[in-house]
Recover the amino acids of this structure.
């Protein structure tokens, strides 16, 4: 990994160069672990829905409300947290987020009521709003510019991996220590990771000492570029959410796909997305045309998903198409992050990533209702059809994001 993270060192002493490499590797490793925790914690409550339903005596609508509360709180607090990152420091905010999110699950395991579930969802939403502003502020300040895309891709991959292993880890915890113990153990990961970051001396970013002290007037953070990128992030979320959340049931009900095949197709889609993220990091470091990369990938992706929507593909072809769609969707993630970094005013990386990440939360609020309504209308083909529409809109918007970031 050292050759990925190290900067060119033509004029530096070997010891100093190696010190920079070690610092970059340690920083990226620690921040990636924190991002793993964020995606892991996202799925703890959904994976425990059967246990929570039995213990609380409520329906899935009430349990779903907790996820809606989580999404709303996370969406409303992303931008304010970004402001705190830039003014208080990303390190402090990140450690606080890990601790709050973990303690929320621990307290729910110790005192399980429906009211405490909603309170836990509020705290988890607040904690979730920390990761993007704090993580990207630290990476932007401490990674080598020539390897920034690859650093972003490794960070994003760690998050994907956290989500991928969450079902298996939670299931194992339930088997070993029961539902209450699973909540406590999963929560304990947060404070433990905070201690790991402290021991590993994760660096600071976003405080006054890291900002330009030239005395110039601070630029407005609500720029046209960031507004466009927020819409761009929302469209990305909407284009992916329908397939991720409703793809299996849509394939089964609309195309007579068997449950094992539909599950395998979704697994291929998600796994290829993670692989695409890593490939996209190398691509992002070799071009400045990040908007064009996103547009090309999503144009091809839209064609693939439209074919899935329009035709009952043979199982092998369906799995191959879902794999290709997932890979292309992952490839654009580092370029997407590079667009935000380039659009951020000096000293405002935390706020910039906080603002645009609100687009993800908006997509997370809209997509369950929208695609759930589509399934209720017995129109499963439109799960893929509408996803393709959102991809086309993303293609149309991508060149505008690139032009805006150059302004």
């Amino acid at each position: 990994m050292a050759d990925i993270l190290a900067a060119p060192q033509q004029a530096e002493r070997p010891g100093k160069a190696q010190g920079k490499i070690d610092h970059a590797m340690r920083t990226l490793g620690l921040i990636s672990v924190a991002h793993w925790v964020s995606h892991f914690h996202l799925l703890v409550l959904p994976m425990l829905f059967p246990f929570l339903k039995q213990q609380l005596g409520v329906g899935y609508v009430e349990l779903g409300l907790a996820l809606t509360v989580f999404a709303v709180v996370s969406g409303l607090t992303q931008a304010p947290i970004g402001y705190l990152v830039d003014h208080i420091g990303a390190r402090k905010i990140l450690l606080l987020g890990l601790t709050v999110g973990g303690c929320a699950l621990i307290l729910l395991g110790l005192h399980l009521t429906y009211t405490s579930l909603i309170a836990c969802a509020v705290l988890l939403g607040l904690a979730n709003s920390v990761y993007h502003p704090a993580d990207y502020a630290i990476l932007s300040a401490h990674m080598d510019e020539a390897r920034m895309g690859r650093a972003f891709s490794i960070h994003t991959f760690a998050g994907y991996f956290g989500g991928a292993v969450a079902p298996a880890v939670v299931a194992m915890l339930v088997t070993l220590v029961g539902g209450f113990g699973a909540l406590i153990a999963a929560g304990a990961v947060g404070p433990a990771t905070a201690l790991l970051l402290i021991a590993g001396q994760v660096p600071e970013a976003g405080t006054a000492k890291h900002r330009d002290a030239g005395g110039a007037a601070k630029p407005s953070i609500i720029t046209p570029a960031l507004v466009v990128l927020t819409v761009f992030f929302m469209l990305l979320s909407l284009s992916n959410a329908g397939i991720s959340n409703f793809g299996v049931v849509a394939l089964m009900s609309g195309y007579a796909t068997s449950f094992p095949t539909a599950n395998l197709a979704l697994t291929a889609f998600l796994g290829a997305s993670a692989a695409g993220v890593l490939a996209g990091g190398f691509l992002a470091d070799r071009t400045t045309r990040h908007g064009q990369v996103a547009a090309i990938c999503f144009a091809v992706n839209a064609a693939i998903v439209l074919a899935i929507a329009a035709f009952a593909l043979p199982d092998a072809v369906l799995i191959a198409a879902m794999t290709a769609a997932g890979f292309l969707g992952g490839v654009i993630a580092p370029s997407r992050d590079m667009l935000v970094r380039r659009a951020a005013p000096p000293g405002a990386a935390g706020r910039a990533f906080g603002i645009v990440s609100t687009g993800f939360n908006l997509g997370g609020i809209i997509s369950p209702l929208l695609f759930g309504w589509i399934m209720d209308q017995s129109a499963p083909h439109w799960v893929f059809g509408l996803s393709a529409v959102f991809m086309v809109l993303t293609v149309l918007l991508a060149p505008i994001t690139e032009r805006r970031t150059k302004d």
